[in-house]
């Protein structure tokens, strides 16, 4: 009976040691789990901040694109007006050549001024159109980035 009692006490001691070891492992795992939760919350907050920043940039780029479109439209209208004006000056120039050679220099100067204005408007129009295209490409890049973020979010949620 004493041997059996000693054997049982030995088993109880071993089980207590094992139990304490398991409890220590459990506490360590709980701490690690809590650390991981905190880390995931911080990452989620960082991701949310990044998404908000991207959305702000998208809104800003959209405003710029609208402004560029409006500018391009105005420049096209001005370009058309100057082309009509240039045509009128050329017609006037031709009429003056056939009738009055004295005012030919003034007409030529007017036509040159109109031509210079027209070339300036054309140059500005091209620049604005290039800016508009660049803005559209930037918007496409941001849209692709947002799609990627959505995909990452969906994968993260599925993976949990």
TrEMBL record:
It comes from Aptenodytes patagonicus. This is Endosome-associated-trafficking regulator 1. InterPro entries: ENTR1. The keyword Coiled coil applies. One of its GO terms (biological process) is regulation of cytokinesis. Keywords: Coiled coil. Residues 19-92 form a coiled coil. Belongs to the ENTR1 family. Transmembrane segments: none annotated. GO terms for cellular component: centrosome; ciliary basal body; early endosome; midbody; recycling endosome.
């Amino acid at each position: 009976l004493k041997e059996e009692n000693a054997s049982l006490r030995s088993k109880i001691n071993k089980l207590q040691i094992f139990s304490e070891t398991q409890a220590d492992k459990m506490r360590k795992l709980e701490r690690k789990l809590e650390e991981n939760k905190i880390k995931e919350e911080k990452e989620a907050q960082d991701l949310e901040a990044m998404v908000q920043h991207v959305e702000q940039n998208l809104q800003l780029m959209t405003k710029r694109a609208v402004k560029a479109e409006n500018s391009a439209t105005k420049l096209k209208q001005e370009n058309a007006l100057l082309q009509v004006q240039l045509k009128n000056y050329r017609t006037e120039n031709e009429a003056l050549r056939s009738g009055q050679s004295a005012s030919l220099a003034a007409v030529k100067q007017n036509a040159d001024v109109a031509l210079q204005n027209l070339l300036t408007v054309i140059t500005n129009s091209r620049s604005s159109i290039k800016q508009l295209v660049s803005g559209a490409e930037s918007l496409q890049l941001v849209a692709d980035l947002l799609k990627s973020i959505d995909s990452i979010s969906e994968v993260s949620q599925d993976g949990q």
